[in-house]
Write a structure and sequence with these properties.
There is one protein chain. The protein has about 110 residues and is α+β, with helices and mostly antiparallel strands. The chain contains one helix and seven strands, in the order H-E-E-E-E-E-E-E. The strands form two sheets. It has a four-stranded antiparallel beta sheet with strand order 4-5-6-7.
Length: about 110
């Protein structure tokens, strides 16, 4: 029983350290918006690097792999023509911080 408690304590300490690390870095502009409020409009490729063009509020932003967006410490892990892939940190039902994969889909133009 004590071993389980010690392991659980270690797990939460590790995830707490991860959250503390996230809180120490300066926030990026798109972290002010819930992911549901951000729209992917398209992609741009420059010098073999792919960027996504996203809209949040009245503004347009150019983002790349490694940028953060959304309010769950979401870091961009990949961009292709149809979506932006992210890795977010969210609390599970037990209060532990866990990684969750999510994606922002390209908004199709209205015809």
């Amino acid at each position: 029983e004590r071993i389980e408690v010690a392991q659980a304590g270690r797990a939460s300490t590790a995830s707490t350290a991860l959250i503390e690390e996230q809180k120490r870095r300066p926030p990026e502009p798109l972290e002010a918006f819930p992911l549901e409020w951000v729209s992917m409009l398209g992609t741009i490729t420059q010098n073999q690097e792919t960027f996504a063009l996203v809209k949040a509020g009245p503004n347009l932003y150019r983002v790349k792999k490694g940028n953060y967006m959304g309010q769950n410490f979401g870091v961009i892990t990949g961009i292709d023509e149809g979506q932006i892939r992210l890795k977010e940190l969210v609390q599970d039902s037990g209060g532990e911080w866990v990684e969750r994969a999510s994606a922002l889909q390209l908004v199709e133009a209205q015809k």
